[in-house]
Amino acid sequence: MTPSRSRPARAHSTLIGALTALLALALSACGEGPEQTSAAAREGNTAAPAPTTTAPTGTALRVETVAGDFANPWDIAFVGNDRMLVTQRDGSLSLVTGLGPGARTTPVSADLQSVYARGEGGLMGIAAAPDVETSGSFVTCQTHQEGGRPVDVRVVSWRLSPDGTSAERVRDPLVGGLPINPSGRHSGCRPTFAPDGMLLVGTGDTARATIPQDRNSLGGKVLRVDPATGGPAPGNPFAESGSAAERLVSGYGHRNVQAVAIQPGTGRAWSAEHGPDIDDEINVVIPGSNYGWDPAQGGESPGGYDEDVPMTDLRRYPDAVPAAWSSGDPTEAISGAAFVDGPAWGDMAGMLAVSAQKGEKLFFMRPGQGADENRIVEVTVPPELDGEFGRLRGARLGPDGALYLTTDNGSDDSILRVTRG
Are strands 249-252 and 289-290 parallel, antiparallel or unpaired? Predict the structure, then answer.
């Protein structure tokens, strides 16, 4: 998420919005610079507005601390009925045994000395293969350095020892190096295995203007990868391209994808994405689609990273996919995303749980059906997870049906277990 910038509150009434647009046009005509024009263009973003967020009624949640004493835990991967791997941004990998309070945490010996932890980069997402209990296979996203110099962001394949005390590096990198910003900005990178065994990877645009719309770059994309080969998954939309990078692309035109979650019963993928100082997005991953982020303004501003363009620029790209949900203003900095499922969740089953860092809350979002299947139609924020634990980052559904979250406050962070009360 871009560091917050001072900006006026967004107008909400039709009258004020109209006056703002007229003023912007007048200033533009008088040569008053590009900022006003950019702001007016941003207001032209017709992505889905944020539904009203209300506290749920009769849906009390139980929140327990499973384990603590972490520093910036990024993600969780379950590697057995009562075991999970936890990544920490500084390059530490831990095994947590037990899915409730009093779980035991032990370090995992792994070759992670090349992790470059700076800004938004470091040891980031992790995902366990569907057959992890027998194969030990899992993947991580991590910023790679050589001689103290950041080189790229890598998806690395690993094999966990049966006792969970060590992990062997199997393939490095799995899908080729992802672009990097030395500052760590917009590193993205959270992997998820789909029901068909293919690997989905959300990536960041590294705060470089031309990357999101460039299908020859792996940044600002949702990739779909065959984990056995590191090549394109069967059926990818650009599988016949002459570009090795483009063959991996499922969706493009993203800013900084933070999570990809699979919807139960449909197998459809949904992504969570950081906006600039407004308009975080939830998107439905539709193969071959453009999601409309273009800070280069179609090549008119290739040298500058213009963050006042719309997150989904439907004026420049009329066929771009509108967001299923947009946060609007203020910033939430959504991060992890996981669907909750199973009878224990009652009428909340099938909702998408989305963690927020700056907003310090957990959203529960309900996808629509039929004509509304690509939209979020209901949003609730449980009071038990509204500012009570600070910044929330990772979100994964456990084998016991509970939702697991990581806090991201920098010190004494925790793994939280969330169930229906």
Answer: parallel
Packed helices 14-29 and 34-43: angle between N→C axes, nearest 10 degrees? 150
Quote the CA–CA distance of 70 and 73 in Å, as a whole number.
6
pLDDT digits (tens, 9 = 90+) for 83-106: 999 999 999 999 999 999 999 999
One-letter amino acid at 357 equals Q
Q: How far apart are CA 163 and CA 206, in angstroms?
A: 37
d(CA 399, CA 100): 12
Residues 6+ apart with CB under 8 A from 142: 91, 112, 114, 115, 122, 123, 124, 153, 154, 156, 189
The rounded Cα 410 to chain-centroid distance in angstroms is 19
- What dihedral angle (degrees, nearest 10) is formed by the CA atoms of 181, 182, 188, 194? 100
- Nearest CA to 64 out of 105, 99, 104 is that of 99
31-68 per-position pLDDT tens digit: 333 333 344 345 545 555 556 555 555 569 999 999 99
Rounded percentage of the chain residues whose pLDDT exceeds 90: 82
Selection from 157, 105, 153 nearest residue 129 by Cα: 157
* H/E segment holding residue 37: helix 34-43
> How many CB atoms within 10 Å of residue 350?
16
Indicate the Cα dihedral angle 124, 125, 129, 134, nearest 10°: 40
Query: What burial class does residue 404 get, using C-beta atoms within 10 Å of its C-beta: 0-12 exposed, 13-18 middle, 19+ buried?
Result: buried
- Tell me the two tokens of residue 194: 């789909």
Burial degree of 159 (CB within 10 A; 0-12, 13-18, 19+)? middle
How many other C-beta atoms are found inside a 10 Å radius of the C-beta of residue 79? 22
pLDDT, tens digit, 9 for 90 and up, residues 368-418: 999 999 999 999 999 999 999 999 999 999 999 999 999 999 989 999 999
Query: Which runs of E-coded beta strand occur in 285-351?
Result: 289-290, 325-326, 334-339
Q: Is a pLDDT exceeding 90 seen at residue 230?
A: yes
pTM metric for this prediction: 0.88
Report residue 41: phi and psi, to 5°: -65, -40
Q: Cis peptide before 173, with omega less than 30 degrees from 0? A: yes
